[in-house]
Write a structure and sequence with these properties.
Low-confidence stretches: 249-258
Structural class: mainly alpha
Order of helices and strands: HHHHHHHHHHHHH
Shape: globular
Largest sheet: none
Distance between the termini: 28 Å
Mean pLDDT: 87
């Protein structure tokens, strides 16, 4: 963020010294618009992921995998394949964090399995994220700018699969076939969990439809999709009869599990704001260097 400010101040001063007070302003406004689209798009995606985490969708998946009695090698392949196919929808960073949590839960003190499993997941998540506009920040930016249409990304499916399968196959020979100790951990998803998953998929369909059929920016479709979640969150808020008791109160039913009234803006608050501000700095730094001509120089 600091670098972006310094770069654009230097650019503006140089242009102003040559009597041009409009070019720098025009280009930085374009960069800010580009970031604004990216910001709102990612904010919707992050809010949905946060909502699914709060409804214990990912914890339930982790619990199911841990308690199924798979061998370490089977878990190596299952977590890798899940990372490869979830990352095109949920983005590669979120997917990698989720699957690595599974590997660490199962691995216990087996550092070799944890190391290989996490490497495998990172490779799988990055490879899987390459054949979808939603899988990675770079593919998202390319798609939003209209450089490549939605379906063209899927041409990369086979190269992406090859980039995952070759290192995974090599690493799998070093993974043990022993069964880890079963963990007595069973997680039940909260009310409305699968509905939120469905609404997230519907939101993605809406964003693609806005872009492909209405020729509008995908972010307009994503923000429309956020309204789906907000309506459903209002329903959860109104139908949740278990309300957290006041602080310092003593309930006559000590075994009752209380749940706070559902509030969707708590999930918005949990978005990865550090990441969003990081992208502001990156986009404006790159925009400033592009205006100066460094990017063209390097590309040639």
């Amino acid at each position: 963020v600091l670098a972006a400010g310094i770069i654009w101040l230097m650019v503006a001063l140089v242009y102003s010294s040559h009597g041009d007070t409009h070019t720098a302003e025009s280009v930085i406004r374009h960069n800010i618009l580009e970031f604004g689209e990216l910001f709102l798009f990612l904010l919707v995606a992050m809010t949905y992921i946060s909502a699914m985490e709060e409804r214990l969708v990912f914890d339930a998946l982790k619990s199911w995998l841990v308690n199924k009695g798979f061998t370490l090698r089977q878990l190596f392949w299952i977590t890798g394949l899940l990372a490869f196919f979830i990352s095109p929808i949920a983005d590669n960073l979120t997917t990698a964090l989720l699957m690595c949590a599974v590997v660490m839960s199962v691995g216990g003190d087996n550092k070799k399995f944890i190391s290989l499993g996490c490497i495998n997941i990172v490779v799988a998540a990055n490879a899987g994220g390459a054949f979808s506009p939603f899988g990675d920040i770079t593919t998202l930016m390319v798609w939003q700018k209209g450089i490549i249409d939605f379906w063209t990304f899927f041409v990369l499916f086979i190269p992406s699969a090859v980039n995952y399968l070759i290192p995974a196959t090599i690493m799998s020979f070093a993974v043990s076939t022993e069964k880890p100790d079963a963990l007595n951990e069973k997680v039940e998803m909260k009310k409305g969990a699968m509905t939120i998953v469905g609404l997230f998929i519907l939101t993605i369909v809406t964003a693609v439809s806005f872009h492909n059929f209405a020729h509008l920016p995908p972010v307009a479709g994503m923000m429309t999709g956020l309204s789906y979640l907000m309506f459903f969150a209002y329903y959860l808020k109104k139908t949740n009869n278990k309300i957290a008791p006041p602080e310092n109160s003593i309930s006559s039913h000590s075994d009752t599990v209380f749940e706070e009234k559902y509030e969707i803006f708590n999930q918005v608050k949990k978005a990865e704001w550090d990441t969003l501000f990081f992208f502001y700095g990156v986009i404006l730094c790159v925009g400033g260097l592009g205006l100066i001509g460094y990017l063209s120089l390097v590309s040639e």
